[in-house]
Amino acid sequence: MITVRKRLLGLRDWRNYLLPLLMLLTVAVTTGALAWSYANDNIVLYSDAVTHLQIARRVVDNITPGAAQLGTSWLPLRHVLELPFIWNDHLWHSGLAGGIVSTVAAWGTVFFAFRLGEDLSGSKFVGFVVALLVLSNPNLLYMQTTPMNESLFICTILGSAHYLVRWATDYRDRDLVLAGLFGLATAFNRYEGWALILAQAVVVAIIAWRRGGWEAGEGLGLAYASLAGLAPLLWFAWNWVLFGSPFDFLTNSSSSRSNVGFVMQETAAALPGGVLPTERDLAADFHYYGLAVYHMMGPIVCFAAIVGGTYVLWQLVSRRGDLKLLALLSLAAPGLFTIYALYSGSAVIWVKELPPHGFFDVRYGLYLFPLMAGLVALLGRLPYGKLLVSAVLVAQLALLSTGMSVVAFEEPQLDEAGCAPRVGSASGQCVALTGAPQYLRENYDGGR
Questions:
Q1: How far, in Å, CA of 373 to CA of 365, rounded?
Q2: Confidence bin at 438 (pLDDT 50/70/90)
């Protein structure tokens, strides 16, 4: 009788319906966004989006098809996930083969945002509101219609964060293994994920040490690193066996370093003194990346995250903070890795407020979205926390109604001529899709 009564009470609790309602809304919104991008030919505006499609396609459509066509420069997870769709010519040409993968990843992003918000605040309602904040971000909403890495990357980060926070709370081995598996997926998607799994391995060691002493810290830290760290080890082995060097992904002519170097040279040539403002200038690096985060998140979420971050600092200084906060803070690693890349000259970000006054790779600001979502969720712990988090969502939706700029959509668009230089005489952003492809389309007879 008591069990039946509990079940009936559970059915009457409206909070039990928040997650199903959220996922139905997510599927509707993200599918609508994908349909809009498809109808307006906006799926492959980014040149990198075309590259991701081509890498996956050449695995199945090539004179020498096979897994080796995944190459060396880009990490393989996205391209492997595109394989069930990329063989179809329409899905390949339209970009839907990649857009479908990103859209499904967006479903996971919203789901894990709900779970992480609930984990950190102890409230399903707060988790629901935080997930709506993620779903309503127009930059992320556009990126989830493209074959770019961001949607999948944020999904796997949030998955690893959710299970790591649960492990820090309940200390169950299952949660640690799942955190490691999502960390493994993150590290197989973008190199920033390597920084994340390193930070999480350190956090696991610290939490285990606090709970069980030095041996527990050493053992569980190494266990997590052994699972999630398989990604870089296997990638080194892949490069060594197939391309002759474990570091080929860093040194080959198609590497991100080579491509970024070309853009950086043209950018520097157009600036006073011919010097990049971010290289070897840590203050400038934080300034540029901070503005990138601001453009991706918007002022409302940024301000709410700063308040949440202040709460975390107060908890740590007063030694009142629980171990879940350490797991959350590890999510800063991808952003810090990007700042290091700016400092070392391995990456470049342009923002309109600073020289060269344009947009380039501003989407990197999305890498801090999981951290900021967690910081907003912590507002739910404060007095009137549910009201505070709700106010953040209402303010965000009000801002969107005024026409918030969608930088992730604006950045890759070209002018009517199809080839608009971004800085001075630089033309690194021009991707010509005429000439040989057009000729082959009209004349190819199916032979070799």
A1: 13
A2: confident
